């Protein structure tokens, strides 16, 4: 069986489509990975997630190390068996979420000590421990451990942080490679840092390629810098990374973010947006996002999106979804999460087809026109 | 098409098994009706509820009249279409929940005025309005409007309340019969009152039979009187009601309540217990209830119940269910609700088979031994 093979089937401008072949399954790219934070994509059974078209899920090292704990998951047969998902899983390194969720952080060259947001217990996360946790979980795509500073920090802070992340990337590579059987079966991705600075991004990309990874993530974006600044970085960052390896934009994003990023050469994405906003009553459609809390939907017998084949759109009215969301019913979260994940996968499939048929620019222009123009009127 | 036919296929002692044939489907009895309070069985898609074996759901007039409103449901094509359930639905009259949930109630001979627990708005519920709401919802089995006093109230209060409920039953019958097409398609059940008093129960049963209904409910139980007192009433109440009509014990109950009530001649049940306790982390098994919050399940790789064919028991460990419940994950509520409704339907199917094969007493003894003896040890 192949450990990790990335094949580009077609390119159109900077956009590419292809597939990643791994032991547990094949991932069509550009790919969107639903987020299964705590060993579940919230409000979805795994077979329903698969039915939306997802080839791979993301799991969060930070959450899983705290609850139920990586050693416990390992004793129970690994994350795939624990959560009943037999296809590939990518795990993040914990680095980003330690910064955004935990308390009382202290960062040294060794790693990060922090207090759990659940119970205040003290933990240490280092490149070596992050690799060990991801191995214990049985991750298929392991992310190097990095630090992600604020994008608006002074350049010298960004530079120093990036250089430490590159030293941590080296330690991650070494620790991963020492993981025995798991290293023979899984892949390791490096993460480019450098915030919005082209020179630092270039230095980071070079450092990562010196080490060598199966894929490369563009890290440190989607942290509040806005779409224009993010696209500004994506105008150069993917080109700094190897063309023959997958490029993964972490934590992104809105549908129009995905289209603009694919246009700039990105192959993989993850984001909580479709699931989280579904729980909050927002449904994504080809005409833009729809807020089902809005009273205008209270007697609307039309489906959320007549072009969607998901269960929410084929069996229920906007009026019913409005009622469920207003009433705080779990079924509302279930149906809108299913719809949004179906929409995201349909969006990725449409992009893959447009790239394969060399009509991506025209497709993207059409998408933007429909998505932006009607949204303001109908939400 | 038959409007309402109750056929008893077999009896065993006081227990009976048979079926109710209606326009929208057939209901095997003894039947358990999952509760779809606000036009959804919480945390379940309707096709999943059906897959557990449910032939009929219960909807709550009180909740639906307040949100989304009966007229709105009617404009959207009725409750079946609104919630995507095409089999029979029984609706309660709103009487009981006005008493237990609303504020600022005032009861007169005309009906009950009350303030919504959602927004404080004032509403009037009378026998005529209750029939109108249930007609607007498109209910298949309509319940007469009644008042349910505290079981420990003085006898003269219980008696006066019961006699008013009997006058309301007459008005319910008249209003239902004036409902045009709906009255030709739906059934109307009367509700016996009289708390724990055999004489009052007898008087109530006689009054209801003078009016004439398609089925008869034993009301005013499961309000805190305890199983022994409830069984005490069930030792005589079903026998006061017509043998050739379904007998429905409202709001009951725990698995052992159901077994004892079937043993005493009850044919239909509804209760929020399997769904509500599922959301709270309690799973029902043939060995008794299991509290999955308990730390003893944290590393238990065994299924919740190896004899159960539901998704929760075939694909997940107790350890995973424990993790989901401890983490407040929606999937925990989904899986445990599905399991508990599957268990309840399996329990009803087992009772139907035991009655049909004239071995109900032996079956019930075996059930009680297994259910009670291990529960305390494993919960």
Structure, explained:
With 379 residues, chain A is an alpha/beta fold. Chain A has two domains: 4-271, Alpha-Beta Barrel (TIM Barrel), CATH 3.20.20.105; 282-378, no CATH class. Helices cover 45% and strands 19% of the residues of chain A. In chain A, the strands form four sheets. The first copy, chain A, has an eight-stranded parallel sheet with strand order 4-14-13-12-11-10-6-5. Chain A has a three-stranded antiparallel sheet with strand order 1-2-3. In chain A, strands 7-8-9 form a three-stranded antiparallel sheet. In chain A, strand 13 (247-249), helix 12 (255-263) and strand 14 (268-271) form a beta-alpha-beta unit. Chain A is globular. The first copy, chain A, starts with a strand and ends with a helix. Residues 375-379 of chain A have low confidence and may be disordered. At the A-B interface, helix 15 and helix 16 of A face helix 15 and helix 16 of B.
What are the main properties of this structure?
homodimer; 379 residues; TIM Barrel; 18 helices; disordered C terminus
Topology:
2 copies of one chain form a homodimer.
Chain A: E1 4-12, E2 15-22, E3 25-29, E4 31-34, H1 46-51, E5 57-59, H2 61-66, H3 70-75, H4 79-83, E6 89-91, H5 95-101, E7 103-107, E8 112-115, E9 122-125, H6 127-137, E10 141-143, H7 155-177, H8 181-185, E11 187-192, H9 198-211, E12 215-218, H10 227-234, H11 237-240, E13 247-249, H12 255-263, E14 268-271, H13 273-279, E15 282-285, E16 288-291, H14 311-315, H15 318-326, H16 330-356, H17 360-373, H18 375-378
Parallel strand pairs in A: 4-14, 5-6, 6-10, 10-11, 11-12, 12-13, 13-14
Antiparallel strand pairs in A: 1-2, 2-3, 7-8, 8-9, 15-16
